[in-house]
Amino acid sequence: TWAPCSRSRLVSVLTENSSTITELVLLELSNHPQAEIPLFLFFSLVYLVNLFGNMAVIILVVIDSCLQTPMYFFLCHLAFLNILYTTAVVPKMLFNLLASKKVISYKLYLAQTYICPFMGAAECIILAVMALHLYVATCHPLQYLLIMTWSVCAQLAVGAWSVTFFASVVPLYIAIPPFCGPYVIDHIFCEVPVLLHMVCGDTSLQETMMVIGASDTLLLPCLLLVLSYLHLLVAVMTMNSAEGRKKAFSTCSSHLTMVTIYYGTGMFMYMRPKSLYSAEGDKLISLLYAVINPALNPLIYSLRNEEVKSALGRVLERWTVSQAPRIQ
Asked: Which residues form the G-protein coupled receptors family 1 profile domain (predicted)?
């Protein structure tokens, strides 16, 4: 068993046993031991909101036929991504907040190293696809049903997942070499920009591969987003109906809020020079896009969406009627 000890002691223990290491120290928020219990309670609540909120979105779309449209099809993909992403990160983070032995197994380390970039990149592309859908729905409403067929939606979804895999997982597998000791990760989870500080020797190749992968999954989707929203802005401003403009702005603002938070933090994390690395700052940024943002997605998309609230009301009404005792 391990007793609580200083970071220097953890470093020396791992350095001495680096040849047979099966786990790594994951410091997370151990620099603030007095706040670990409040943080555990807070992040547990955030994780539950994320799980139940995103699961509720998926279930609601499945059981309510009025929500079975391309927009909510992509929203289900986003909700599914949010659940997987946070499940890969948060349970271990919560466990380590209360544990004296703050470590991560080598297998889980590998899983987080590959799963987290994959899920993060997939979310970037799904958000861009959703922006493209909004553009078609707003700027070409008469051709909407002809353009956004279920076949096209399925192809976009499959393409998003496929591009993400080849743009994030494959370069990562090629570029990341073995690490040197000490095997101490001063971060919330195993994330590539942080892991590069454990690489032996020159990391210019790894940094270049990371920027190339980020360009494919961040910059190109961001360019598509910008173009889509420029056309959306022009289309909305030329609408004659004030009610139509209000509805369009409401839908776009929800999506744009998520896009701004996610893309902004992601670009700073993956496309900045290594010299700008800051352990505490990176932890805060990672918490925003890996923990907080996924929990906000269902709240922003649902609480500001009349269609979702109406569908929820219909489902609750049907459930209440089904549970009521039958009149003999």
From this structure: 53-301
Question: At 80, which amino acid appears?
Answer: F
The full DSSP string for 57-96 is HHHHHHH-GGG-SHHHHHHHHHHHHHHHHHHHHHHHHHHH
Is the residue at 93 inside a domain?
Answer: no
Instruction: Give the number of C-alpha atoms closer than 13 A to the C-alpha of residue 91, restricted to the C-beta side.
Output: 8
Give this prediction's pTM.
0.79
Nearest to 252 by CA among 234, 265, 240: 234
Separation of CA 174 from chain center: 23
| The two three-digit tokens of residue 55, written as one number | 């699961």
Q: Which long-range contacts (CB under 8 A, 24 or more apart) does 201-207 make?
A: 203/274, 205/175, 206/175, 206/176, 206/177, 207/274
Distance CA 194, CA 285 (A): 12
pLDDT in tens, 49-83: 999 989 988 998 898 888 888 888 998 998 999 99
**Residue 310 sits in a domain of what CATH number?**
1.20.1070.10
- Do 69 and 75 form a contact (C-beta atoms < 8 A)? no
CA distances from 153 to 13, 78, 133, 157, 260 (A): 52, 14, 9, 6, 24
Own/partner pairs, 299-303, CB within 8 angstroms, 24+ separation: 299/49, 299/53, 300/254, 300/257, 300/258, 301/57, 301/75, 301/254, 301/258, 302/53, 302/56, 302/57
Residue 227 lies in domain: 34-84+118-167+202-323
Residue type, 196: L
* Number of domains into which the chain is organized: 1
Tell me which amino acid residue 231 is.
H
Residue 290 lies in a domain: yes
254 occurs within a structural domain = yes
Going by the DSSP 8-state scheme, the letter that residue 105 receives in this structure is: E
Question: Taking Cα atoms as reference points, which of 62, 65, 114 lies closest to residue 88?
Answer: 114
Beta strands in 117-212 (DSSP E): 184-185
Is 282 within the bounds of a domain? yes
- The pair phi, psi for residue 103, each rounded to 5°, is -130, 170
Q: Which of 11-25, 162-176, 268-282, 289-303 shows the lowest mean pLDDT across its residues?
A: 11-25
DSSP category for residue 3: -
